[in-house]
Write a structure and sequence with these properties.
Layout (H helix, E strand, L loop, with lengths): L1 E6 L2 E7 L3 E9 L2 E5 L7 H10 L3 E5 L5 H4 L2 H7 L4 E3 L4 H4 L20 E3 L15 E4 L8 E5 L4 E3 L5 E3 L2 E3 L9 H7 L2 H5 L3 E3 L6 E2 L5 H8 L13
Parallel strand pairs: 4-5, 5-6, 6-7, 10-13
Antiparallel strand pairs: 1-2, 2-3, 3-4, 8-9, 9-10, 11-12, 13-14
The structure holds zinc ion.
Amino acid sequence: MKIKHIAPHIYKIEAWVGLKISTWLVKTEFGSILIDSGMGFMTGATIKLAKAYGPLQMILLTHGHIDHTGGLASLLKKERVPVYAHELEIPYMEGDLAYPGRRKPQRLVDKGVVKPLPKDREGQLHSMMGLIPYYTPGHSPGHTVYYHPEDQLLLCGDLFTSKNGRLKPPIKAFTADMAEAVESGKIVEELSPAAASVCHGGEVPDPGRQYKKYKATFGSLRAAVNGSKER
Ligand SMILES: [Zn+2]
């Protein structure tokens, strides 16, 4: 496991299981926020890091896939904190619905553990202790990214992967709707963050400038789980 200081308030916790899996710890004036839980074997190092920056306040999830939620149960045994995800993702992670393209539903978290991200009257997702959630469906039905305005860093989960500082599409075999995922990627053009950080890859500087080319290159890519062949 590796801990990288990627922005003034943000640490990236990286593990390797044949591919890179990452989570993020964000420092706030009240304590720390964890973005995604990673797998169970990452829990000890995650709690140690969180404790160095004040009490863990909450866990925010980008989506429910096991490499993002597998460590949740062991984390919550040690730290009783609220956990949030987009309301549209919760039935999939609780096993009420099968993820698109999957034959069977899978219970990835216990019922009632994950609460829906709060919204205002207009349906806008609330800022969570300074982190702003943005709904970015496609990789999964309720996929959400989190923006840190002060550090200008976008925590992307599986909205993208990356290679050598370039945006790449999410992993095909685990992506519900690739065309929608590529479209949701326009958030980097809209926010124009200094960098994007992805779960399965390194950081991408100035991702907004790459988006047009990314969309032109990958906009017609089909996800394997849709059953349609790639053109
Ligand atoms: Zn995923």
